[in-house]
Amino acid sequence: MGALPNAPGPILCVVGARPNFMKMAPLLAAFARTPGLPRSMLVHTGQHYDADMSDRLFADLRLPQPDLNLEVGSGTHAVQTAEIMRRFEPVLERERASLVVVVGDVNSTLACSLVAVKRGVPVAHVEAGLRSFDRTMPEEINRVLTDQVAELLYTTERTAAENLAREGVPGERTAFVGNVMIDSLRANLRRAVPPEETLRRAGLSGPSLRESGTGGGDRYRFALVTLHRPSNVDHPDALGEALAILRDAAERLPLVCPLHPRTQANVVRFGLQALLETPRIAVLPPQGYLETLGLMANASLVLTDSGGIQEETTALGVPCLTLRENTERPITVEQGTNTIVGRDRALAFRLTDEILAGGGKRGRAPELWDGRAAERIAEHLAGWFARRHAAIGA
Ligand code: UD1
């Protein structure tokens, strides 16, 4: 039997790049078990396409295969954004979508939001209102524009609502629900892969990641490093400075560095391989979600320029040094374990020593980062659909 003629069409859930997958997994699960919601369809734009950047994360997160893959691949921002828009529009029309759900701040988020709003299909943006106030970041442009066109804006921290209000977004469109990325973290932590197994799986004997603890027994001692922001890796000077910080840290403890393809390519392009060639630094290809969780949860500290990892380390209580000049996630600094160090080598070195001496930030889990954010969003949406249906039927 087909759908009733006036039943709402499906919710199109959009993912494109690696950090989208852990946000969408709990949403899809919550939508499926919430009465009053239409069925969901998962659309992958194909912005990330390598097995390491996409398929492996789908498997780790037990995400269903996408109903559709637009296979856009890489390109300049204009090419990639335009191609996503061109390929998403007919899907939206064909499926008669009732809502488009986008997450985060990648090009796929903005591209699909623009298509939807121009076709009169409402957009729900999960992780709305975060601002770095740095418009040289492509993600900041994606955030600001997506929030301007979204009908429903779900926020992870209270400062987000203030940012949105300042930009003229009506308060009744926003709902503070918590953090879906932390839903995934909490749901999967017990499945995390132990750090030495990750090295072994990557074919590395690598540095020893354990040392003898004072109370007998071994404990982990290593830092996890991730670097991929264009501001850190797209220019030889910047990348050289970032790698110098890693060399300093490696004097103190072994480093495990899963390298993003962008970083990997630029290290070679700029002839900087020698900076990573020490037995104290294990360079790995991009890792799966469960491997990354195991590394993050057991690290003595994390050095990163990722947005999501600032949040995950805060949720785990692991000290994080962020190699950026700003963060769109201020709660991780104010309440969590995050410290912004930019590429200040002396500061990074001093803080590394402080953390290793036991003086790192302890932090606390922010409000509503409790593993139930997706459930709150699903319930909120069910109410929204009910009101909308009643209004249309009236
Ligand atoms: C994108 C997001 C960024 C996010 C990051 C997570 C935007 C503007 N940026 O940046 O916010 O933090 O994903 O990884 O959306 N590549 C591969 N294989 C892939 C995908 C990419 O080799 O599966 C290489 C290509 O050379 C590509 C480059 O990585 O040109 C950059 O990929 P792209 O999607 O343009 O941006 P990211 O740097 O991954």
Features:
seven-stranded parallel β-sheet; six-stranded parallel β-sheet; binds uridine-diphosphate-N-acetylglucosamine
Describe the structure.
The structure is a single chain. With 394 residues, the chain is α/β, with parallel strands linked by helices. It has 16 helices and 15 strands. It has helices at residues 18-32, 55-60, 77-95, 107-118, 138-149, 159-166, 180-188, 195-201, 230-233, 236-252, 261-269, 289-298, 307-316, 331-334, 345-359, 373-393, and strands at 11-15, 40-44, 68-69, 99-103, 123-126, 152-155, 174-176, 210-212, 218-220, 223-226, 255-258, 281-284, 301-304, 320-322, 338-340. It has a seven-stranded parallel beta sheet, sandwiched between helices. It has a six-stranded parallel beta sheet with strand order 12-11-10-13-14-15, with helices on both faces. α1 (18-32) crosses α16 (373-393) and α4 packs parallel to α5. The protein starts with 10 loop residues before the first strand and ends with a helix. The structure holds uridine-diphosphate-N-acetylglucosamine. Residues 17-19, 47-50, 53, 74, 105-107, 138-139, 228, 260-262 line the site of uridine-diphosphate-N-acetylglucosamine (UD1).
Sequence-ordered SSE layout with sheet pairings:
Elements: E1 11-15, H1 18-32, E2 40-44, H2 55-60, E3 68-69, H3 77-95, E4 99-103, H4 107-118, E5 123-126, H5 138-149, E6 152-155, H6 159-166, E7 174-176, H7 180-188, H8 195-201, E8 210-212, E9 218-220, E10 223-226, H9 230-233, H10 236-252, E11 255-258, H11 261-269, E12 281-284, H12 289-298, E13 301-304, H13 307-316, E14 320-322, H14 331-334, E15 338-340, H15 345-359, H16 373-393
This protein binds uridine-diphosphate-N-acetylglucosamine.
